[in-house]
Amino acid sequence: MSRPLDSVARKQARLLQFRTDPADLGEVIAYRPADAAADLAAELSVQYTSNVAIGLDVQPPYRALEAVLRAAAGTWARWQYNEGHYELLCAAPINPQDRHDVFRYWAEAVIPGPAGQRIAEQLAELLARAEPRPAVRPSPPRAGRRSRGWWPGELARWRLAEELAALPWPRDNGEPVRFALCTDGRLAAIGHELPAEPDRKGVVRHLLPRISIGTAASGHSQRHALTVNATTTLLATSWKGVSTVLLANPDQPLVVAAATDGPPWARRLNVPAVAASRRLAALPSLSANVPPFPEHLVDGALADTAPGPVWAVAPVSVRTPGLGRGHGMELFRRIEEAIDSRCEKYSHRSPVFIEVPAVKVPPSESGSRVSGPIAAQAIPTALDAAGVDDLLVAVLWSTDEVRARVKAAIAAHWGPGDTWTATEGVEEPLAGGRIKVVFLHDKAGALSHGPRSAAERQRDLEQMLAPYAGGGVRVAAICETDWDPGRWYPTIEARDTAEAEDGKWPSKQALARLGATSQYIKQAPPPVPTHTREGKPYNEKYRAKKVASRQNGLDSSTANVLREILSGVGATDHRLGSAFGRLPLDPWWHIGIHVRRHAQRRAYGKRRTRTPAPITATLTALRPTAGPDQPWQIWSYSPQAGQWLAHGPATTALHAADLAWDVTGYPTVGDERPQASAAAHIVEQALVAARTQLPATAPAVLYVDGDGAEYIWAGLADEALGQSPPADLPRPASWLPGHSLPRAQRPLATVRVITDLERIGRPTGAHMRTSDGTWRATDTTNSLFQLAADDGTRTYPDLLLVNVPRIWAAGPAGRYGKDETRFDNTSQNRNGYAHTATRFTVIGQGTDADCDLIGAVAAVLTNQGITSDVRQSKPTPLHLARRMDSTHPYYRRTAESNEDNSDTAPADAEDSEAAEA
Fold this sequence. Notes:
Elements: E1 11-15, E2 17-19, E3 29-31, H1 36-51, H2 61-73, E4 77-82, E5 85-90, H3 96-110, H4 114-129, E6 132-134, H5 151-165, E7 180-181, E8 187-188, E9 194-195, E10 206-215, E11 225-234, E12 244-247, E13 256-261, E14 268-269, H6 271-280, E15 310-313, H7 329-342, E16 352-355, H8 379-385, E17 391-397, H9 400-413, E18 428-430, E19 435-441, H10 454-465, E20 474-481, H11 492-500, H12 504-513, E21 516-522, H13 540-568, H14 575-578, E22 589-597, E23 615-624, E24 632-637, E25 644-646, H15 647-656, H16 674-693, E26 700-705, H17 706-709, E27 749-754, H18 757-760, E28 763-769, E29 775-778, E30 784-788, E31 795-803, H19 806-810, E32 836-844, H20 851-863, H21 876-886, H22 891-894, H23 909-916
Parallel strand pairs: 17-19, 17-20, 20-21, 22-26, 26-27
Antiparallel strand pairs: 1-28, 2-11, 3-5, 3-6, 4-5, 7-8, 8-10, 9-10, 10-11, 12-13, 12-15, 13-14, 16-30, 18-19, 22-23, 23-24, 24-25, 27-32, 28-29, 30-31, 31-32
Helix pairs in contact: 1-4, 2-3, 2-6, 3-4, 3-6, 9-13, 10-12, 12-15
């Protein structure tokens, strides 16, 4: 990029985010059939649900229609329900015959038989007779809804993808790479798959490079923007678990992307897409555009050693053996250069982010960041701030190796020294007598794997801890487990059985019911072998490095357990305060609000449930107790507790109860979702209670996850920033958290935190002004940047914190990808890391709020981890609130799995609502 800001700014961020203009969309044609089409489409949906969906797990048929329709038209098209009418939108004219054939054969494929033929013929005739007219651009999405379902945004993404598909991409070695545009709007490097070395069975796995265009969070500038990201998708070697199928031929302008139906272990191609494509392929006018899908999902369609005519994309959860991670920074810089130099519509249109000079956020210990566990001499003060008089740490061990490793870590970090014996069953005071450690051998098997309930384990654990607990002593347990969440099982049934009999989750809940927090430590991996598989001895220098690396990993993980034990009871040292540096350390409450909608688990072959999914809502509040050298207080709130408590008791209250919170009892208004109504009500209750239940009355700053909370609070959406609440708002609490409170009691501000690169854009470095006044490009940056107006006259309370990966910062060995891309087949086993970022948008609620300062504070609380040595992805209050949820014993049963979040899932709820209309 060569568009530096003409001001005194020292640095300007480089970001793969590009502004769009309404004129960039080009002509959009609308075909709106007669009103009878709405009744036919509704009847089609009812017939489909009645005849096809019974006993089958299938997707809505409208997603299949868009894939076939775009392939037939050769460009963007969308069938949507708008203002009481169905209409066909497209970026180029479609002749009447093609419109008739597409809708006729697609509808017959959806509903086979006489009923389908009747509906199909009538609907096709109405579409064929519809006259083209200019599309009426809708108003921006209403507050509370994300803009991804807004069709101008989807078309803007498509237009940029079209320009990128026309460009040749330089390759490190060999011919240039070309990306083909797929009907789902993504770009795929068909014919440029990346192979790995053969595995033990001789099977070669391939990665398909892909480029995706996302809708950016525009923030306070309120200008629509796009992001560009590159991914690699593992190609399947069998049909088991396939999530997407790509089908292309040389004469076809678009690659047809068809989703799959059925359970993950028995996928099948989407029925309407397959049947419609087979029939359309026989038509002379469409045969070049719509190839027929394979008749059956047979393994013969997928070659063992090279991609065949069908590209089957495996789900995200499938491992990638022998292939490194990421494309590397060089690919993103090439994308940036190509757009700036050859895509005139988007050239030099990235937003202006300039450096915040007064805030330093270093990536290592060289600056204000504090690393390592809490020092032994600081533990008493930290426990005082957490409201803990005495802490009993019970080490529940099973193997001698784990016992010795935990003993060594405690001796190193909590002060007893190497001569400490750690007698079994004897309490030994450490850290000035404020911590008592006792080692207890789990002879009863309370933590072991097997079909034992939490109640049975609770009885054994209560007997083990009874001689030591009581008298106001807070208990924290270090527990041994050999469970590996990444372990591969041959069948789904084997995995489910192993998870059901895993001793970690019921024992963790049993300890929570006893009022004890817990941390689990893994057993050591197998020792480093002395010989290769072929029987040859390893090189001693190579083996010594492997042994040292293994030991360092074990020591680090054990030290992390000690950190988490203290933070689990709410103890922290001066690290948060010292990270502020020159920023004022105001005695505010920093409150993180975490809300998660649970996954809707259902048995495959059953109808989708209409019961609203439950939610989990947790809040964490922390504030400095005194100066920068003193610890912070941490309090938490959960609906199960019903009140604000110190962090430790609030966490155990949450973990001892059911994680789900039923939302059916909360009233909704209009099309408001039950989860949004319940979350807004719970959070408002917590903020009202905070005025009287927190140990001090002070102004508050709220932190929310922008990716997951925009459907709850309408004021978080880009279109609502700086606006007044609309008149049709269901209730004041639906605008922003705390908005229903009296004006004098409202929070100072709400900080919307976004970490999704689809909404931020990939950082590629910075432009730096040198001493002679010229600008030069830098490869990396870890500065804090602030959004500025395009003319540079003012800035917004909208900040960007760029993260340099830890392995990249470690040295040249971890910087593969800096000067080369993933398209070099000789380097597939190396990791090509790229940079990430976190964005903070500050929404002022108090009249005297300093939003620029609050944004800088959010960045500091993200840069300084409360336990880890590296930067967190979210500010500490939000990080702790989310961790209360994610460490619940049964979090995994209610969290969205990788397969639930596959790239074939509906992009927005509005699309699903239109399909069901």
